[in-house]
Structures are given as structure tokens and as C-alpha cells.
Amino acid sequence: MNRRLTLAGSVSGAMVVALDGTVLTVAQPTLQRDLDASFAQVQWTSTGYLVAVASLLVFAGRLGDRYGHRRTFALGMLGFGAASAGVAVAPGVGWVIGLRVVQGVFGALLQPATLGMLRATYPPEALRRPIAARTAAIGLAAAAGPVLGGALTTGFGWRSVFLLNVVPAVVFGMLALAGGNRSQAASSSASQTASETASETRTETAGTALDVPGALWLAVALACLVHTLVAPSGPAGALGAVATVVAGAGFVRRERRAPVPLLPPAVVGSPAVGAALALLVTVSAALNGGLFTCVYVLQDDLGLTPLRTALVSLPLAASLVAAAPVSAVLMRRAGSRCTVAGATAVLAAGLLVLAAAPGTAAFCAGFALVGAGFGTVMVAATHVVVRQSPAASAGVAGGLQQTAMNVGPVIGVASATVLMGAAGTRSPLVVLAVAAVAALPLCRALPGGPRPVAAGLPAGVSVSLPGDVPAAAPDPLGRSVPAGPSDARHTAPAVERGSFEPSLGDDEV
Fold it and tell me: CA 486, 490, 495, 497 torsion: positive or negative?
């Protein structure tokens, strides 16, 4: 697949998943009435999907690393579209729940591939803009979802909501199948030949094994964790917590003994990747927990209708979309560390504004700050996860990123629910703001800003000489020229080739 088609497929896949969740939320009350379902059954139409997708994301990413991200993307899109069509004709709520679980399985195949395809197609230094475009598309889908869902449900019934994803899923799934052989990672080194790149890719793919026992342990641990967070009270919650600990311990034990672990050490052993994932969990928990809280504050305390509540929250989606391209510029100029730290602080400030907001104008301002902070962190932290992971493990990296983005909201909503009952309606906003500030030290593990530039040379050009080349007096133009043989390696290529736009180094992303 060429770059444009790959980017279009990645964006469409991310939008399909984002739309599916937001439009269903609006349609659930109508679904409950039409199918004569209980509230618990309606909740499982969302919980079943969430448990399935969260438990399989990492293993699905590993499947993409082994068999090709294009193939897993195509299978995920086509399966997701077929399951959506099935839900649209389901005769009862039991069928809806079962098909939503099937949707989750194919969604797990789809989501890591949207990032894996980008990593395999774009050179590392060119990933910022594609990831920003993908994030902006998610924000746009999140904003448009409730509006589309409300219009479709009102005009055509809840079943039409699930038909919304069928056409784009089939179209981009078929395009991915017809897109040719799997794209290989583009090399950022000008000296690497095409044959060396092909050889390296074959070697990495050949070493990509499937740790099925490890995948099963992780799937059980994540499924139990999500279920426990969704239903933390009662015997089921306690049993789920115990099962999470046992399965987590089994997964760690398996990973230590596996010859080829499910989570490659190059990915999970990277401090930058670990910090970025922890920040993604934190900010997604803060965003979703804060939004959940504000819905009740606006409707119960201020007496707003659901429609006015949605209109007041629109600045969040708008600022999230606007922050995506801006974050790419900030990363290039200031580095990921400063970008993420500043954006996390903005998100925390937005939550505090919401906690003290006396009216709708202040709520709009708070939502705008939260959206801008979250959108920037999402782009920058996702870029770190994908950029700092080897190309051969791009699927696992994408799976971990998507797992963080699925687990975080569950933690945020569960925490908000407990805090609202124990300490007041607005208390979760303050606690979530404090949690975001407490995560700021994690930013120290992220890559820093650009290196200092030597006087008179473009950024990124080193003027140091190899150890075996003696120094010489400057030439008539004031440039330092090696005094060794004529075939000595030059480390300041711009001296003889003129100025050019350099690519960022590993510590400048």
C-alpha cells in the first residue's frame, strides 16, 4: 500500500471504531425499549465489546507483526463490518451482546494495525504528521458521533446506527487486501541500500513468534481487570480482582520463561515507552472520568437538558481536533518531553476550572483546556510509543497503546462513580486533576528537545572528526577540513553539499 492509501486506511479504521462507541451511547435507551431488555443487558452491549477488545489488543498486534499489518487490518475491517451488519438485524438482546463481543474481537485486530501500518510505511522521522492526522480524525468522530447517532436513531431507529460503519469497513478492508505486499519500514539512513532493508525486514519477521500461552494469560488478566473496574462491588467484583492478580502473576511468570515473549524487551524495557503508556492511561482516565462527572453536574446541578449539555461540551472536541496538528509542530520544536509535560498541565488546569465553574461559559473554557491538553498528549505520547519501538514490534506497540486508551477510560469512569457517591458531585474533577499533576514526573523519561546547533551549520550536523583523522587548519572559507586521505568519512555533509533539512535524531522526537 502506498503512503496515501495507508494513511487513509489508518484514519478510516480509527474513525470507524470511534464512531461505533459514541453513536451507540445515544442509541442505547431506544435499543432497551425496542428489545424489552434490562438495564444490565444494555450495559453488557458495551461491556462485552470492551472486555473482548481490551483483552486481545496486544496479541492482535503480535499477529500483525508476524503476518503483516495490512492483512490483519483488512481482516479486522471486514469482520467489524460484518458484525455490525449482524447487530443491525439481531432478533434479540442476547444476539446483540454476542455480536458485540465478536465486534470486539475484530476491533482488536483492527486497532493496532492502524498504527502498525503507519510505522511500517513511514520513516521514523516522518511519523508525527500521520499520527496527528489520525488523532484529529478520532476527535472529529467523537464529536460527530452523538449527533449522527441521535439523528439516525430518531429518524430510522437504533439498528441504523450499526449500519453506519458497514460501507467504510468493507471498502477499506477490500482496498487493504488489494494493496499489494506488506509495506516495509522505510529507512531513515541514506546509506542503507534496498537489499539491506529487505534482508533486515525478513530477519525481523522470521524472529516474530507467537507466544500463545502468554497471550492467553494476558487476555484473562485484562478481561478480569476490565470487568472488575466496570462492576467493582459485590462478590463478582472481589472474585474478578483475585482473578486479575492470579492471571497477571501467571503472565509475568510465563514472560520470564518464554524464549520469545509476547511483549518484546525492546518495547516494554524502554523507559520512554513505559512512561508514555502510563501517561496515556492517566490522561484518558482524567478525560473520561471528568466528562462523566460533568454530565451529571450540568444536568442535575445546573438543570441543563441533554442537548444543551452536548453543546456546552463541544469545545472539548473542537480543541482536541485543533491540538493534533499543533502538537506535531510543538514536538519538532520543543521535543516530546516538554510538549507532554505542558499539555498534561493544561489538562489538569482545565479539570480544576470545571470543578469550580459557576456557569456554562466557564464550563466551555474548562472543556476547551481539557481537550487541548488531551489531544496534544495523545499525539505526542503515541508518537513516542511507535517511534521508540522497533519496526518488527510495531503491532505490539500499537496494541499496548490501544490497551492504555481502553483501560484508562474504564479506570476514570469507575473512579468518578465511587468519588461522586462518597465525596460530592464535583470531587472527581479535583482528584483527577491531582492525578494528572502527579504523573508529570513521568515526562522526564520521554525524549528531550533538539540538540544544540553548532555555529554556522544546519541543525543536526555534527562537526566532530573521526579519531583516526588528524585535524587541520581551516580552509579559506573558515571550515575545518580533515588532513587525512581524500576518502576519509565526512561528518559534516552540509559542508560539501550545501544546506538541507535534517531529520530528527532519536533524542529529538
Answer: positive
